[in-house]
Structures are given as C-alpha cells and as structure tokens.
Amino acid sequence: MQKYILSVLVQNNAGVLARVASLFGRRGYNIDSLTVSETNNPGVSYITMAVTGDESILEQIIKQASKLEEVYSVHEISEKQALSRELLLIKMELTEGDRTALREIADIYKAKIVDLAPKSMIIELTGSTQKIEAFLGIMKEYQIIEMCRTGVTALEKDSAKL
Amino acid sequence: MKLNGSQILMEVLLEQGVDTIFGYPGGAVLNIYDALYDYKDRIRHILTAHEQGASHAADGYARATGKTGVVLATSGPGATNLVTGIATAYMDSIPMVAITGNVGTALLGKDSFQEVYITGITMPITKHNYVVRDVNQLADTLRSAFRIAKSDRPGPVLVDIPKDVTAAFCDFTKSTPCEAKKPPVADEKDLQDIADLINNSKRPVLLYGGGVVASGASSCVTKLIEKSHIPSCHTIMGTGVLGYGDPLNLGLIGMHGNVSSSRMVEKADLLLAVGMRFSDRVATNAEKFARSPKIVHIDIDPAEINKNVQIDYSLIGDVKEVFEHLLPLIKEQQRESWASEIAALQAKVDYQPLCCDDALKPPQVIADIYEILGEDIIMATDVGQHQMWAAQYSKANDPRRFLTSGGLGTMGFGYGAAIGAACAFPGKKIVHVTGDGSFHMNLNEICTAVSEELPIITVIFNNQVLGMVHQWQKSFYHSRYSFTEPNRKTDFVLLAEAFGAKGVRCTTPEEFQSALKNAATNNGPTVIELMMCTDERVLPMIPAGLTIDDVIME
Hints:
Helix content of chain A: 25-40%
CATH topology of the largest domain in chain B: Rossmann fold
Low-confidence stretches of chain B: none
CATH class of the largest domain in chain B: Alpha Beta
Low-confidence stretches of chain A: none
Number of domains of chain A: 2
Strand content of chain B: 15-25%
Number of helices of chain A: 4
Shape of chain A: elongated
Distance between the termini of chain B: 69 Å
Order of helices and strands of chain A: EHEEHEEHEEHEE
Number of strands of chain B: 20
CATH architecture of the largest domain in chain B: 3-Layer(aba) Sandwich
Largest sheet of chain A: 5 strands, antiparallel
CATH topology of the largest domain in chain A: Alpha-Beta Plaits
Strand order of the largest sheet of chain B: 3-2-4-5-7-6
Oligomer: heterodimer
CATH class of the largest domain in chain A: Alpha Beta
Mean pLDDT of chain A: 92
Mean pLDDT of chain B: 97
Number of domains of chain B: 3
Largest interface: A-B, 16 and 14 residues
Number of helices of chain B: 22
C-alpha cells in the first residue's frame, strides 16, 4: 500500500463533492484527506485528494473519477513533483512551565501562537505532512485539548521537471 | 416562443426523437401531465400500474430498439419506485432518461409532502443527474441528459424538475437531436498490432458481451468472426449477436455457461474480449479465469480495463468503429483443425439435458416457444432459474431479441421489459418467460398490457419454489430450504382473468404447445402457467468463486 496525491479539477457546482465522495464510498476506495477550493476560474474547483492503495487501485480511482460528468481532469502528482502543504491548528492546555516550553518548540518549527488564554494557547503550523506529523509527535508529550488539520493541498512543481 | 417548463419538456422530447414514454402521474407532475394532454397525439404515454413497471418498460423499450427509453414519475414515492429500474439499466448500460417531478423550489429541503432527495438517492446508479431550479436551464439540461445517456458507455440519467419550474415560462428555441459522444477511433498502429495478434494466433477465441449490442456492432463482429473463423462465446448480455446455430457459436460462458466454452477459452492462445466486463458471473474466479491465453480487451470504457481481470492488450473505442477498422486488416483463415475441436469438445464435455416426453422440461419449453412462435420473437425474462434456462436454450438470432437483467439480476424486470418491447414493436410476438417467484413481484403490470392491448405471452415456470435460491440451498446449505418454499395458493389462471387477460394452466408439453398456438392469436395478454418439477436444477454450474474445474454437472 502506498500513498498517492491526486489533483482533480471539477465543475464548481453544488453536489460535485458528494459525487466524488459517493464514488469513493461505492468503490471502497479510502480517502486519507480531501480539500476543495476555488481556482482562478470561478467555474472550476480544485480538489486535492490523498489516497492510500496500490497501483491498480490508483488506476481504477483515476479512471472511474474521470468518468464523472462534472470532472474535468484527474491527475496523479508524484511525491517527487508535489509541493504539498497542510495546516494544523492545535489547542494546548497550559500548566505551570509549559508555556515557555511550547513557545520554544513552536519557534523551532516556525509555528505561530495565534491565541493565548490563561489556561490554553492555540498554535498554527503550516507545512508538509511529515513536518506536521513530527510536530504532533512532540506535542503529544503535552496536554492537547483539541486539534484539527486541513488535509493536504498540493500543486505540481514545474522545477522538478527541469 | 414563450413556453412553460412542461411544454418545454414535451418539445425537447419531440426534438430528441422520443415518441413513447412510460409513466405515472402525481401531484408534482400535474403540470407536465397537463401539457402531455395536448401532446398525446405525438407522444404516446403508457400508464403502468406502478412506477417500477414504468422504469422497466422504458428500459425494455431501449433494449429492444436501441433508442433512449424515457420514464416519467412524480416526486417522493414515485421517484423512489424508479430506483430499482434505474439501477437495472445502469448495471446493463442501457440508455434511459428518467424525469421526476419534485416539490416547488421554495419547499425543497423542508421535508415537504412527497419530497425526497432523488438526485442524492440515484447518484451512484446514474451516469449523471440534475435538479433544474431555473426554467431557463431546462431545455439544455434535458438535452444534456439525452446526450449523456447515449454517449460513450450508455446508461441512465435522471432529471428532477421542481413543480414551479414546470409552470414557469421562458423563451424556447428548437434544436436538433443531440449527437452521442464517442471515444476517438483507436490509433492505426494499435489496430494493426491487434490485427497481427489475431492473424498470427493459432487458437483464438472471441468472447463478446452487451457492448457489441449497445454499439450496433453485431454484423461487423460477426463478419470478423466468419472471416478469421474464430470460435466465439458470449456473456448473457451478448445473446443473439451470433446466430445460435452458427458452428462457430460456442454459446454462453460463465456460471451456467457451456463447459465447452470455458474449455475452449482455456485451450486458446488468444482471447478477444469484446464489449464485456469480466463480471463475477463470467469470470467466476477472476485470478484463475483465462490464464493461458493472451487477453485482448476491446471496450468503450477505459475503467473496465484491468478492473476485474488482468489483461495483456487493450483497445478503447466504440466496438463498431474498432471492428470496422479491424476487419480489412484481418486475413481470411479457415482454422480447420482448431474449429473442428469445437464439435468434438461439445459432444464430450457439455451437459446433456435429459429428455422427457410427458413432463414439462425447461429445454423443451424454450424450444417449443421458438418453434411455435418463430425465431423472430422478443423474449423478456425475469431472474432466476427460468432466466438461465431461457439464456442457455435461446434461439435468438438477432441482438435486441433477448431482454434480461444481466448485471443487477432484478426479479420483476420481465413484465415491464415486455411491455416496453411490445410498445416498440406492435407486430412482433413478445414472450415473457418468468418464474412463480419473479412473477409475483410485478404481476400487477398485467393490467397495463390489458389496457394497452399488448399481446404479451407470459410463460410461468411454476415449480412452487424460489428455484435458484432453493438450488443453492440444496447444493451449498445442506438442503435447508429457508423461506424458499412459500406455499402460495395463487391461481394464476384466475388471476389473469381477474385482470382481463387470458389464463391457461398446462401440465404436459401438448397442452403447452396448444396454449402457445392459442395465445399467438390473442390480441391481448395471455398468462400460461406451467406446472413443473420442484427439483429441476440449472446445470452446468460453476460455484461462485471457483473455476470450470469445479463445475457441477449432475
């Protein structure tokens, strides 16, 4: 099993996300993460999907998704060529002495403290999935109140083709 | 010109060449039916007993004609009753446009009376679906629906129209029927490569399915088979492409197919899989199916390539176009020694049904139907044992003459399908082969055939059990017949007569033959109930998940 990143261009219609998600559910493909955003063309939305599977599952996903009427294109971005980012928001409990430690860790990861309250702080971190995972590994040593991640959004790098 | 949404619907139907639709009225489609009142001389509307029957009728109409079937239903329960019919069409790639009414746009999403989110429900069983919230979008949306239904791999499309949109006015401009989109013609080199494989093959076998019928490719596929003398077998959806009596026709393959078909595929060095999808009823074990030959897969849908069975070569395209281009590249060959293996193999390995003079036996019943009514009949089946017997002993000599729910396996499909075929071909003999289980599901449609004076001949294989499940229980569940012996007391003769049809019960072949002759002269529907043996099994049978080496012959 391998991880793949797919970039999917779709018509910006109500329900298009449901169609893509329904296809995945029906065929039993697993989505690790999915982000949808508008593009510079208001009629087109951009979906970034991270999926896990083998080559044959990937081939099926691409072909089946391409058949959807509102899908313009489905394109696999190889790991080497993907510039991928995700955003993490994490709310930490502040006990005696933690504040300084958390600030230091945030500094090392170039994360931002975006909210501070007497008993908690929210840290924001943008980066590759690996970076977010590493940061979370350290945060788990402290008291996490709640957290959320956006999931991967990715573009293909032209420089990698040069 | 200014028209309201309902009139626009009528105009687009006419513009797209639709002259027959199947449906059932209701609150949300009152405006549409009001418009239909003015168009009834140009659009024939068949009122069924139930929306499910209407959906199967539209499907049967499409299967029999190759045109897009159209079904119309109201919101809520009317729409949900279409679901099985839409799924049936989807699984067999049948072009259909389903039109549903819905509550007015202001009431959408408020759990209004008879409101259901039908586009959500049908998302996974349609090629695409639409809600039209603006009458200005209606005509083009309907046109897209017709284009999508026929384009590439055909299938059903649903258009949901809220009630206020059916009443709102806008400008309407006539257009022309939509052109179905097809994939580009395969590249010359790829075609030549496939032709070389065929020309150089010593032992080719061709396996075709419903894609050949959908693309109207029967005659060019047959020409190629004859030119290169390729033994050919088919899935249930391919029934009728090659004449049943053709010496190169190996017949059905798969779970209940001929053993010789499977053996020829195993002995082959090249398998040409054409317009088929290696379903689990054909490739009962996907890993072990056709492991010896190289496989060439020719299909219109790229997603079918390597979906179920790993293949060696593929060609994406419309089967008819591909074969038209392939044919001149194919060398004439006789392949005497390879073709001569067929007859020897058939005599050696194929299942031979036992003859019986005084009892009604499935092979003879099917043979009698063709013998007495002619080989040009359209046969529609339900699902179960009778369906397999009808397929095994079919004498269809033409595609679109054997209508069956191959993919979804919908019990209750047959009567609706027969209605659709009967409406499409008024002069033709339409035979509906069914079982006592399947017929109970949608027998209410007899009333439709009576009202419309459709001379459908229903032949019920009444073995008092839900035969196919009963057979599996006997073979794989130690004869624990859990709820497959329903102990019904239905008198099908009285039932038929209660509906205003003719009914007759037969216990011997002679009675059946004479009943068929009488039915052939009846202007309305006839129901012939055949009293048959409970223990009859469909043979041969490859158990699910296993291979031809595990075939059950007795």
